[in-house]
Design a protein that fits this description.
Number of strands: 17
Helix content: 40-55%
Largest sheet: 8 strands, mixed
Oligomer: single chain
């Protein structure tokens, strides 16, 4: 069981979000592609459809400096080397022409030779990368020297020769030992140093194949390079529609590099997105539909703002439009790309929560507030005392401010400071709060204590006259598909509500299905972004990691990126882990990965309210200090 746990823990490992964003920024700068994303996979690889570059897990569990420089070398090699100087069309010809036997072996030989060529190109073009590539080459040399010995012993000659080739290229054929059959290839290996193009590298691969196929009978078992998949590329005779081939002639140039392949995919995706029009052509164009003169031009980013109702039995109104109020809108909005690429197929609704069991909840509300009363009173008095203390504080001996009545220092001091400042903050704290409450099914057994904590949060801010918003968020797991993931935001208290008492709304919260945290954080962040308050806080109450349709693998990193995006906008994001027992070390590491140091955990159900008050005290202290 221990070994299984270690395996699961290894596969749950994720790169720190801030570090990943650093790598993304480097790649975007080198490629000049602002949509580019970085992830981690088994091998370095391009995914044009997703606009993604993968760095290799090869660098995990090494010295921190080696790991960092190794990952950077992946970025440099891919985004400056293969991105600009690898000829895709010639490579496609190679895939069609190469023999079927030893096919994988030939692929690996080509990418090994191309890596050597492109490392030289990048180092010559960007001298500052030499230190990074030195670390890369040394680490891979140690790896291939070990692999060479192991594969020769096991008789895996194809794999052994790939290691032999790598060592020969970087250390020289004189410094590598191998079977005599391998040494026959030394003259061809020497020619790699003269290779200047992908075509020349392919010619050398064919020479090695015809020389070694007499000795190497089985294809390679291991894969050392992925780079790009043939299936991820458009066909060589790619066009928009067979019926308009001549009309579109000359519109698209042939794609020679990976850079142009990525741009092609991006243009196609941009042209095919848009929620107002659908075309029957395989690749649509923006414009007006012939049979719908009033149709709006389809563009990415448009939102569906109204739901039309067609004619049906019992309905005499054709094309009736549902015009619900903003608070109770039943219309679905499409997330598009404005909430991140993980949520392109998300549709969502915004509505007030429906109050349930009003008569019973009134008694419960009174009970909860009686329990909170001593804590609420003490907390509010504490905040007011801090404000009063701040109001009468007077700082003297300053170089600027109000001129003091005591001017003696002007003659007695070498560097006089005769000014003072009297701090007098506004009575009302200049802050706005947003609270996201996880509405997933796992919250079912924690909902009662969560309601108490949210109610305390609400009452404290009402008492201090601080604008705030409370929202329950969830995804409908039963309706979610690959093309549509319905989400809901249920307002419990809106920014526009002021000091309205929404206690009964809080007690009406119920658990639903899934939670798409990254999407929810961005949604509430947009609500807070343009507020005039100087201090903006976004709290996340959750009992675990994000979990939604197609979101399991990327949810952690997407949520971490959403948190960083809010911080860049000046919104402080804090997290409270709601749990009925102490958080494990693995859980704590996960929360640190997503929220940095701004995460707190409640060790038991009874401490939800206590931790909520502690978080509020910490945030309001910052507000008082900054007032």
């Amino acid at each position: 069981m221990d070994s299984v746990d270690r395996f699961i823990q290894f596969n749950n490992e994720t790169i720190d979000a801030r570090q990943l964003m650093h790598y993304e920024n480097v790649a975007k700068a080198l490629t000049k592609n602002t949509l580019l994303a970085i992830n981690e996979r088994k091998l370095i690889e391009f995914q044009p459809v997703d606009q993604t570059i993968s760095i290799s897990v090869f660098w995990r569990h090494r010295d921190e400096q080696v790991m960092h420089e190794g990952r950077l070398s992946d970025i440099f090699l891919m985004s400056e080397g293969f991105w600009k100087f690898f000829d895709v069309l010639i490579w496609q010809d190679f895939l069609e022409e190469k023999p079927t036997e030893l096919s994988k072996f030939m692929d690996q030989l080509l990418f090994c030779i191309e890596e050597f060529r492109l490392v030289e190109v990048v180092q010559e073009k960007r001298v500052g990368t030499q230190k990074t590539f030195k670390t890369r080459i040394k680490t891979y040399l140690d790896f291939h020297k070990q692999q060479l010995r192991v594969n020769i012993q096991k008789g895996f000659l194809a794999d052994a020769f790939i290691s032999y080739l790598y060592i020969s290229l970087y250390e020289g054929t004189m410094y590598v030992q191998g079977p005599d059959s391998f040494k026959l290839a030394n003259n061809i290996i020497q020619k790699v140093y003269e290779s200047k193009t992908t075509q020349q590298s392919i010619d050398l691969v064919f020479q090695l194949y015809f020389l070694l196929n007499e000795y190497v009978k089985e294809d390679s078992l291991l894969q050392y390079y992925a780079i790009i998949s043939y299936t991820s590329l458009p066909p060589k005779d790619f066009h928009y529609h067979r019926g308009v081939k001549n009309a579109e002639l000359g519109e698209e140039d042939k794609k020679d590099t990976i850079e142009e392949i990525f741009r092609s995919w991006h243009r196609e995706n941009e042209q095919e997105n848009g929620v107002h029009l659908q075309y029957e052509l395989e690749h649509g164009r923006d414009g007006k539909a012939e049979q719908a003169i009033e149709a709006e031009e389809g563009q990415e980013g448009h939102e569906i703002t109204m739901t039309g109702k067609g004619q049906s039995s019992g309905n005499s109104k054709v094309g009736q439009v549902d015009q619900s109020s903003n608070d109770q809108s039943s219309d679905l909005k499409k997330a598009g790309k404005s909430f991140g690429k993980e949520h392109i197929n998300v549709v969502y609704k915004e509505q007030r929560i429906a109050i349930t069991d009003a008569s019973d909840n009134k008694n419960l509300l009174y009970k909860y507030r009686q329990e909170h009363a001593p804590f609420l009173k003490a907390f509010v008095q504490e905040m007011k005392k801090r404000l009063d203390q701040k109001r009468i504080d007077k700082r003297t001996n300053l170089t600027k401010g109000r001129l003091s009545t005591k001017l003696t220092p002007l003659w007695t001091d070498e560097r006089p400071k005769p000014f003072y400042k009297k701090d007098a903050p506004s009575i009302q704290l200049n802050a706005v709060f947003g609270l996201l409450v996880d509405g997933s099914a796992s919250m079912q057994d924690k909902m009662d204590e969560t309601k108490k904590a949210v109610l305390l949060f609400h009452d404290v801010l009402r008492e201090l006259k601080i604008t705030h918003e409370i929202v329950l968020h969830y995804e409908d797991a039963y309706e979610a598909t690959e093309t549509s993931q319905p989400n809901a935001f249920e307002w419990i208290h809106k920014l526009e509500d002021g000091q309205m008492d929404n206690g009964l709304d809080i007690l009406s919260m119920i658990a639903h299905e899934d939670n798409r945290d990254g999407f929810a954080i961005r949604w509430l962040g947009k609500r807070l972004e343009n507020r005039a308050e100087n201090h903006k806080f976004l709290l996340v109450f959750s009992d675990g990691e994000p979990s939604a349709f197609g979101y399991a693998q990327n949810g952690i990193m997407d949520t971490a990126e959403a948190v960083l995006e809010q911080e860049q906008l000046g919104i402080n994001v804090l997290h409270l882990f709601l749990n009925d027992h102490e958080a494990t070390e693995e859980q704590l590491n996960l929360f640190r990965l997503i929220f940095g140091k701004k995460s707190a955990t409640a060790s038991s159900l009874e401490k939800f309210s206590e931790e909520t008050l502690r978080l509020l005290r910490k945030m309001l202290h910052l507000v008082v200090q900054g007032s």
